[in-house]
Fold this sequence. Notes:
The protein is of the alpha/beta class. The protein is built from 10 helices and 13 strands.
Amino acid sequence: MNVLILGGSGFVSGHLTRAALDRGYGVWTVTRGTRSQDERIHVLHADRNNRDAMAALIDTLPVKPDAVLDCICFNAEQAELDMTLFAGVTDRIVVISTDSVYHPAFKHCPQDENGERYLTDGGYGAKKREMELAFINSCPPSLKWTIFRPGHIFGPGSEAGCFPEQSRQPELLSELRAGRPMRLVGGGKYLIHPIFADDLVRVMLDCIPNEKTFNQLFCIGGPDAVPNFRYYEILGELLGVGVTFETVPEEGYLEAHPASSGHLCDRRYDLEKLAATGIRLPDTHLREGLRLQVEDLIARGR
C-alpha cells in the first residue's frame, strides 16, 4: 500500500509515518518543514494551501496513493482543496478533526457523533466543523472520506500538559519537580478522554480498507477518561513527586479566555460507533502512555 501524508513533520504525522513504514507501506509526505526524515520516506516540499504548487507536486508522484491522510486540514477551504486535488488521484482520504467542534454548553457525557449543537464562533472548533461539513456535503462520490474527532492527543514527541492552563508546556516537568501548584480551572473537575498518538494513527491506517468507515465520522479516545487533575497526579507519580493544585475560579474565566470554551466541559466520548466497524479500539492506558511520554521528555532534557 502507498500513502500520502499531509503534514509529515508534525507530532501526529510523525507517528503516522513511522506506523505506515512499520507496516511496509510506501510513504510520501507533504511538508513545508526541513526536519530530518527517515530515508525511507519520500519527502515532498510544498505549502498545502498553494493550489498550483500542490497540483504540480501531485503530477510528479510516481504512484497513485491508495490513501491520503490529512493531519493538518483546519478549515473548509483546505477541505475543498483536498477534494479538488485528490478526486481521481485516490479513492480514500482520512482526516483528523477535533472534539472542539462541539458547543460545550450542549454536550452529553459521553458524547456521540450526533452533536446537536456545534461551535459557530469563527474559532478553531468552528472552522474544524466547517471542514467536516465540506467533506460531508461536497465530497465527490469517487472519494471516500473518514473523519476522526480526537480530544487530547499525547505521547512521545509532544510536550506534556493539557488545557487550559498548562497546555504542552516545555517547563511543566520542571514545575512539577519544583513543587509549583498546578493551576486548574474549577479544580480540574472536568473529564478528559486522552488518546495515545500511536493508537490514533493505528486506527487511521486500519480504517483505510474498512468499508464500514467510508463516509463516516467517528469520536475517538483511549480506554481512560479521567478528571483533569488526575492527569497531573499521574505525571507526579511518574516523576516521584507530590502534586499540589491551585483552583482557578470558573466565574469570569470563559469571558476572559473564550478560546478555552471547548475545554471547560466534560470531554468523554462514546466509541460504540467505532467499535461497530470491527477495528480494534485504542487500548493504551493513560498511565502507560504518559510513562512513555515522560521518558521521552526526560531524554530530551525536560
